[in-house]
């Protein structure tokens, strides 16, 4: 399992390719009955983009007309009404501890559509926008002053901009049509909007990228003193633009990505950033956004709206169907827009006690802070001992389980080590479409 450093980006467990249609489809009120709801996360998915980058396997479609985005918001409101009714029927009023809007590109929506989206969150779902952390994703082409004004006015505390590279040649190599001048203008507009936290996403491992060009992108990013910088390894996945080029996935590319990662990590640590995870780096003097301190991603639930959003309870993760190819994504979006009854969970994965423990371990261990020692050593002793043997697990002075610097570098192989065999089997059997 630890033969190559880049197995899979583990941002949630289990992956959607392990989800299956739920039979019978449970009522949301039953799904949430008895669940903790005093620190929920709220997520909204907007599955639209101007263009689809060559590396992207996100659930999104390009060129959506205004009639479709309007119909999508109509469906989103119907889903919100159903979700809130289920929460109210099944227990005490929920409290949302944080919120995020992702995609796709949420700022593909017009300013008026963004305002309606925020109204659905606040007026229908009861999310306390302005009182909790709220993160929104954007692209340089859509981070326009009029849209940013809506985001700032409605309580956005974090804006994440997908830049990937400040080098125009590298951007083209990643099949990402953008010009550095437009990226600069977007970053200036974001800073002018005074959103407290700016995050810049950068990618390493692009064809033709060198240590020098990678360092140049990092240095350019620092001109805007972003509070956060995320460093992502390039993945070439099936059914994506780059995936159709049949690029090689060899040990030499692995070594190049590891080298660029270490170079970028060291550069940021030397320039006033702390490492939060393999991907996330936070400026040491970044402002602390109030609210959400009691939310724990390993255990607390999430309500997701939109056809690409997941929802979590302790024992059930659920969503809608998943796809990558343009034609399949369009079909799922069309089906979502036509849906009238959102009272049931459609597709998902049930987590027993073992799966819940695996999820907790994975989502804790992949953070630089690690986790408190509990029964993890007994339950997952074999895997943890392998990490120690490789030098990936260090003895922390506070007696926590914590990945070493090199262990964090191999996070995308460390995480999959702890996938259960049923999850692995479901992922292997899934037919990507």
UniProtKB/TrEMBL annotation:
SUPFAM superfamilies: Radical SAM enzymes. InterPro entries: Coproporphyrinogen-III_oxidase (IPR034505), Elp3/MiaA/NifB-like_rSAM (IPR006638), rSAM (IPR007197), rSAM_sf (IPR058240). Residues 34-274 form the Radical SAM core domain. Pfam families: Radical_SAM (PF04055). PANTHER family: COPROPORPHYRINIGEN III OXIDASE, RADICAL S-ADENOSYL METHIONINE DOMAIN-CONTAINING PROTEIN 1, MITOCHONDRIAL. This is Heme chaperone HemW.
